Amino acid sequence: MDPATASRSWIAVASAEHVRRGRAEGFMQVCHGKAVPLRRIRPGDRVAYYSPTERFQGKDRLQSFTAVGIVRDGAPYPFDMGGGFVPFRRDVRWLDGRETPIQPLLDRLDFSAGVRNWGYPFRFGLFTVTDRDLGTIAAAMGVVLC
């Protein structure tokens, strides 16, 4: 397979309430609706959402993976949410699975095993991970990747 066209695996970051809305409506948003990060993602790429909190800007700690899906065909597109907020979205086919805490997985994930500050990459809102990591996350969530 040509590396330029091979699918990649990603972790996106958003509050659980935002992820649940995206799952219900079949889309994803990242980095407060910015288009540029979404342009790095291609159709067929796999994405897992990590939710540090239940609510946007909440103080509650959830620290769980809350969704896994496969990016659908099409480019990022603007969506008018009213009030002057027009974030960019990508369509995703979300797979059935249960929300799963990250803590039990930290020693098994390539990006966090043996890393003291495992939360650092999450600050970017979107980052690539190994296919192995995405598979480990999906399995823990009870998701069958297809």
From TrEMBL:
Top-level division of the source organism's lineage: Bacteria
Domain (EVE): residue spans on this chain: 10-139
Protein name: UPF0310 protein D3868_06395
Family in the record: Belongs to the UPF0310 family.
InterPro entries on file: EVE_domain (IPR002740), PUA-like_sf (IPR015947), UPF0310 (IPR022996)
Pfam families attached to this UniProt entry: EVE
